[in-house]
Amino acid sequence: MTALLEQTKDARRRTRRSRISAFDSAMGWQSGWSWSNVIRTILIVIAIAIFAVPFIGVFVGAFDASPTSLQFSIIPKQFSFEPWKAAIDRGVLRFFLNSLVIVGGGLVLQIATSIAAAYAIARYRFRGAGIALGLFLLTMMLPEDVIAVPLSQVLGSIPLLGLNLRGTVFAVILPVAAWGFSTLVMAEFMRDIPKEIEEVARLDGVGEFRMLVSIVLPMSIPALGVATVFGFIMIWDQYLLPLIAANGPEDYTLTVALRGFRQDYDTGSGVLMVGSLLALLPSLIVYLLLQRSLVRGIVSGATKG
């Protein structure tokens, strides 16, 4: 038993060394001291500082009640929860909840639409497949400013139904339910799944729905991670669509409300920092949870062929 434990520990050490050496090789590190390693270290520290400074400034400013809280500082000059109380009084939690509901519903619909459309485009040959993919890609090519006025009229009166969706979360969820980027990513990944796997499954009597859910979709997890991360960020950062879909300030999302906080000088800079911190956290959390799938999806897409 002791010998087996020692062998297991040695295997773990060798695996750890191989991972470190592989990382060093990928980053261009050299063993021992060298000027190249020093320069790389300095550049990495500078890059980390550039990306970390805005996060630190927002976090510190959210707990700083001093009049000059917009000035960068590592430690709050007047640590206080007053900015949070003022932000809650201004309805920041309501705006945050509106954003969560919209991004939750919109992302679920977007991923479901992308999976279904990508499966049909990637695994079947039919007339108009290229046209269908082109229509999805139009959602990426047309600027929001171009479709803002027509979309506002459609949301005010849905054709054939006559429904007015303005002032509801559905006015923002439905327009983001289809996105060309997610469909394209999923379709390209599903297209590379070997046909032999599908043929064997069909011989075992697997139907279309089970084929998608049990075989194709589990093999497309990396692409699904990419589509989820970018889809979340796309919906969460929406500004013009929630603005034209709202009937009043109570319907605003957090991104739209931040503009109001910035223009309202009575709120103070602390309230703006609180809203900015709440706007940053969800995207950061989603990225940290799905970063492994995101990296796998990007790497697998870069190494195809």
Characterise the protein shown here.
The chain has 305 residues and is mainly α. It has two domains: 1-30; 90-302, MetI-like (MetI-like fold, Orthogonal Bundle). It has 14 helices and no strands. The chain has helices spanning 2-27, 35-61, 82-89, 92-123, 129-141, 144-156, 170-173, 180-191, 195-203, 208-219, 221-236, 240-245, 254-263, 269-302. Helix 3 crosses helix 14 (269-302) and helix 13 (254-263) runs antiparallel to helix 14 (269-302). The longest helix has 34 residues, at 269-302.
Provide a count of the helices: 14
Name the shape in a single word: flat
Tell me the β content. under 5%
Helix content estimate: over 70%
Name of the top-level CATH class of the largest domain: Mainly Alpha
Order of helices and strands: HHHHHHHHHHHHHH
Q: Give me the Rg, rounded.
A: 25 Å
How is the quaternary structure best described? single chain
CATH topology of the largest domain, which one? MetI-like fold
Q: Which CATH architecture of the largest domain?
A: Orthogonal Bundle
Please tally the β strands and state the result: 0
Low-confidence stretches: 18-27
Taking the sheet with the most strands, its summary is:
none
Distance between the termini: 46 Å
**Domain tally:** 2
- CATH H-tier superfamily of the largest domain: MetI-like
Q: State mean pLDDT (0 to 100 scale).
A: 80
Main structural class: mainly alpha
